[in-house]
Backbone:
């Protein structure tokens, strides 16, 4: 089995030029080691019109994919490339490994090493629904920016102005009526990848038998 080890700042030599991916930071990741992997890189590149470059030359379809996204990129820049990679793997007709997963690579500050977030089952929807109806067993989280987050239920809206109160308020709403809640994410495209990963990591920590994360994530202007 292949084992993939990389430094916190990923370096890739291409055509004699050194390129750097600044990884998003998380703390206390649930996943810290993955075997049988191959990497893809989404570089922040100020010389390009859309400021992004994708390198996927080292991807092998049957392995677990580590997608290394520069934390400075916005979702508007990164999500189309991520969808492209997901479709590439999902639609592979040969050499397909149904058990292979996709992960975002992060810097886990609690161990000063790598941590990973699984996004295999996430389907990014590149628009905000025109008609949103919240069901009693749902919570909708709208993230416009770090200091402008709304958690909406059928009978209440909680405006969160800090990352520190996000997890507590979410858990309080999720346990109302002692019913399982499915959480849907609606995220502004202008959010940078670091902030997106921060909230993904927090949501993973909120998961219980009563807190279910929907596979669909809506990314909007």
Residues:
């Amino acid at each position: 089995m292949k084992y993939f080890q990389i430094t916190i700042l990923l370096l890739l030599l291409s055509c004699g030029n050194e390129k750097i991916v600044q990884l998003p930071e998380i703390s206390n990741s649930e996943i810290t080691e993955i075997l049988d992997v191959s990497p893809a890189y989404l570089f922040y590149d100020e010389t390009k019109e859309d400021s992004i470059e994708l390198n996927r030359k080292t991807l092998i379809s049957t392995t677990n994919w580590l997608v290394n996204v520069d934390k400075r990129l916005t979702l508007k820049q990164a999500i189309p490339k991520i969808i492209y990679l997901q479709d590439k793997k999902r639609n592979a007709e040969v050499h397909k490994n149904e058990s292979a997963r996709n992960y975002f690579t992060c810097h886990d500050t609690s161990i000063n090493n790598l941590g990973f977030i699984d996004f295999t089952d996430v389907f990014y929807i590149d628009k905000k629904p025109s008609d949103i109806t919240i069901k009693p067993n749902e919570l909708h989280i709208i993230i416009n920016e770090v200091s402008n987050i709304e958690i909406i239920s059928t009978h209440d809206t909680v405006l969160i102005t800090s990352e520190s109160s996000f997890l507590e308020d979410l858990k309080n709403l999720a346990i109302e009526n002692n019913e399982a809640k499915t959480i849907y994410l609606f995220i502004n495209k202008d959010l940078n990848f670091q902030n997106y990963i921060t909230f993904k990591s927090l949501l993973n920590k909120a998961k219980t038998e009563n807190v279910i994360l929907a596979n669909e994530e809506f990314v909007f202007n």
The chain has a mean pLDDT of 86. Residues 84 and 90 are 10 Å apart (CA to CA). The longest helix spans residues 75-90. The two ends are 42 Å apart (CA to CA).
